[in-house]
Please model this.
Amino acid sequence: MTAPSTRSTACPNCGATVRFLWAQAVQTTCAYCKSVLVRHDLDLTVVGKQASFPETGSPIQIGTEGKWRGQRFLVVGRLTYAWDRGRWNEWHCRLTNGASAWLSDAQLEYAMTEQVTPDGDLPDPKRASVGDSFFWGNHAYEIATKTAATYLGTEGELPFAFDASGRNLFIDLQNDSGKLATVDFSEETPVLYLGEYCDFESLELTQLRTFEGW
Model:
């Protein structure tokens, strides 16, 4: 992947250099003092402090590159959530066309999705049940799981100013052709992501983190 042209500025809290790999980044985290920073062009505002959260057990890291739907991507950020059965990462990816996608990484299961505008009804979080059917983008989906998760932390660049607290609801849907849909209810207006499950090898990942046992 062609290296993106980086832009840099100083962290308003500690003065360390903050570099942006993605032109549309709205929020980032200072790698030195862990201040959470919201971006207005190259002016940064401190909106909080990133608490320490457990290291990921994934080989993926910021700077990992891969390929999805014929496009190369670069991992530029991460959100981490915890739920009753463990933790998972949502890696924010910059595509070669400048758009944004997400690589979900949970217990050696991987999926790539991108945010879309719904062309059909979204589930009602209070009434939706496993097995309920929905139709978006010329594909039918059925609810597979409803997951209440707690936000643990973030690093790197995100396409929005993220402020999550308490338990957040996610509804995952799938179909027999491997397509995946996720409805994120952590915002006031639910957000729909569409994509598919991916084999690790098919993503052609490079610049991976190496550690004992991998």
Observations:
- The chain is about 0% helix and 50% strand.
